[in-house]
What does this fold into?
Amino acid sequence: MAFENILSETNEGIGIITINRPAKLNALNRATILELSEAFTALDKDEHTKVIIVTGTGEKAFVAGADIAEFSEFSEEEGEQLAAIGQQLLFDLVENLGTPVIAAVNGFALGGGLELAMAAHFRVASENAKMGLPEVSLGVIPGYGGTQRLPQLVGKGRAMEMIMTAGMVTAQEALTFGLVNHVVPQPELIDFCKGIAARIMKNSPVAISKAIKAINASYTKDGYEVEIKSFGEAFGTEDFKEGTTAFLEKRKAAFPGK
It folds into this structure.
């Protein structure tokens, strides 16, 4: 299967999906989300693929957020649809995939990038990685599951602070918080993930799939529905217009608070 924005390969039972938009620091747009959905679905259906690793091209970014220019003029309804469709196509898909997914976070994982990493079953970060959900600096909230998965991983208090400050945490801080499982030197990142994958592949794929389903069953979907609706409502605010305009004009936002 040929893709424009990603690379997908399988070797010795391990599928590797690489977001390949280096000029945009691998930012997610709708086309890339669709391609990722297709790649994850295809690998999950491939009986020879036992574990999937998702990463980004280069040494700077896993995924440095969403493509702001693509949705800066969206209405409330369009914003809500953006979140709902994106969650269904990719983020919920990855979380509930029967094939284990490891996020190899090789650099910046911001906004939708961190949300993608959090949708994976667990995360390994390179030493230079930095993670955050900066959406409120644009007058919007995380819309791809960030308000739900971040508290599940790091606790309510840390999640509140990270989201409200729009700040980034280092790889070591992420390890301390429980946001990532391991931190390794960047040249060793993929091989380290392959090593974990090899240990996973020694076990029953049927049992692993059922374990994933059972673990995920402890979380309800109500919160995601609230997030989607609130994300859409943000698109009707003056703060959103100012935040996205300031970002695209490369200046500091002056939020009117409306």
User: Anything to note?
Assistant: The beta strands are 6-11, 14-19, 51-56, 61-64, 101-105, 108-110, 122-126, 130-132, 168-170, 182-184. The mean pLDDT is 93. The chain has one domain: 6-186. The longest strand covers residues 6-11.
